[in-house]
Request: fold
Amino acid sequence: MPKILREYPWKISYTSNTHNTISDFYIPALECAIQYDRKAGFFSSAILSKVARGLGAMLHNKGRMRLIMGCQFSPQDLQAIQQGYELRDALLSRLDADLKPPENFAQLKHFEILSWLIQNQYLDIKIAIPLKQNGLPEDSTQQLDPQHIFHEKVGIFTDSKGDKLAFNGSNNESIGGWERNIESFHVYCSWEGGRELDRVEEEEARFEQLWYDVSPNVRVFEVPEAVQKKLLRYAKATKPDWNAQAEFDSRPLTKIELTEPEAQPEPELKPDSSAISTEQREQERLAFTQLANIHEHPGCLDFCLKSIPIHPWPHQIKILRRIAQNFPQSFLIADEVGLGKTIETGLILRYLLLSKKVKRVLILAPASVQPQWQEELREKFNLHFWSYTSTEFKDPYKRTIPAAANPWNTQDLILASSHLVRRTDRMHQLLSAEPWDLVILDEAHHARRKSPQDRKETPNRLLQLMTQLKEKTKSLILLSATPMQIDAIEIFDLLNLLGLQGHWSYGDNFCDYFASLQGAVKQEVINFWQVMSSDYFGRGGQPSSRLEEFLTKSDRILAYKMQDTWQRGKKISNHKQLLADEDFIDTSRQYLTVNTPLKDLMFRHTRDTLRQYYQRGLLERDIPTRVVQDNAITLEPQREVPLYLAVSNYVRHFYRLAQKDQRSCLGFLMTLYRKRLTSSFYAIKSSLQRRLDYLLTQRGSVLSDDDLVDGVQVSSEQKTGIRSIT
Reply:
């Protein structure tokens, strides 16, 4: 069994004048790690060796490491760059000059381990260069200022359980600082929650921002191939042997040992020799082998992020990582409009498909945005979904193939209209098809009850479909910026699709619980709260770490009282006394509002979330503030006014006839024409032309898919009635 981080007694901080940081910290942490992210100092042989201290302890886990380093340009380098020398060329020159041979056995072992990790795709190094407003690199002395990035020492360890350990400490990573200064750093454990977790997540977010080159005023480069080859001279054919004692072997290397990697120069070959082509073929084969087996690689998720032409926002990466870690759990993504739910879905799909966790995927979206979905998935994520209409499949390049008898079994990646599938015939086809690995429903609030405020069991056709479809898929992801529009029962219906359990799976309980948190508190209310809360925690719910931290620090006794009453369900002996405790009641309202299945099944980010990211330096620019204004528009008196009056009079006349003759279908059609008028002049013209053609020829239909893009739902009875309108 691999070791895990939370089993080790980590200290709050370490310092080299009182601890052996290698044996007390680095080796134990690396023995637990399957992922090690590190921001270090300026690229050099000495710093690389120091970074690799204890790294051999990670070899048995085949852990992956990402390393970000700086580059200490000389005054001559900066002068050359100012005169127009390419930054990338200057970087290659400086890194090559700073990569010196190891000086002792410990450093040689470090280089062997680093080279083997690079060669076998377990280590990736990037170089980050702070830039001034004019686009030129900062002077190296400026980079040692606390306001710049490579003055700090930061590392993040992740174990097989997903726990993280972060350290951040002494600012001594200049070229000579390692040997002369005392090393010290603080340690933060994610599993302790509260501010500890906040600090770990903040360090993690800052690292991701640098790694994906989205940090303001910083350019990030891959290590040049020539420098990598120079380092790879130390790589062994087999995994290096390592033990803890190797870290303290300071014996100097002899001249023979020092030059051993270069002792046998490569034979000089002509460009057209078979040896070169064989080597190139082997390199190409290895590259394709890695890509073909990317689903087995521990860096599959990072590869997904690196291989797309966009830079996701922090909250989008957060959603991706949580869904990737918890698949096939179902979720509701309820981010505010404009925060990129399509991007989040694309990230999730790309990872799940590349990691081979899913094969058959169905996306249901309103017909009006179906082309947009297909284009964005292709353009941003290289995902080619077949867009299904009533008669054919269309690929992203507009090529079409006819639909089969049951089209849902002919393709694995299908994008379809959520209006189309709610029709009776399509519904039966879909439900009789092979199961899906993942179903995604956009604008999920369209799956609702017909009269939510009445709370009657009257699901519309889309909600009926999703209730049955959830049994034919491993995972379900719902997307909606407005999951609750009229009543709390609407969000219950959506979350119930995702798997609410126990007392929470009853709509009345769900709605009454949240309503009671706002009202007067009586004995029966207290008992109801306890039943619902203990049911949540008893089924694996975890308390909010931030609230736990706050309560423990502000009032430890009250914190224990919260845990006993709501988490453990301890029997209440004196309700009257409890009701009289205003502090307990007020805190309970907050505690019980936060700790519900909503926080486990739903993501909700707002524009304020992004503003907080900007304030923390995680976004390059702030989010614009929306200012909504009502602007009156004057209609053109010669064209627009007569059109509006004519359509209104037409609709009013036939709507009255429909009421008089009890022809509800005609009334429905007239209501639809008003919507088409407010959509566009072309829309109302097309709808009225279809009605005129039908009245003149008694052929065709007065209703098309275009008429339903606003979410209008039509029953089979209404369709029959509309067809009979003359």
User: Anything to note?
Assistant: The longest strand covers residues 33-42. Residues 26 and 521 are 53 Å apart (CA to CA). DSSP finds 30 helices and 17 strands in the chain. The radius of gyration is 32 Å.
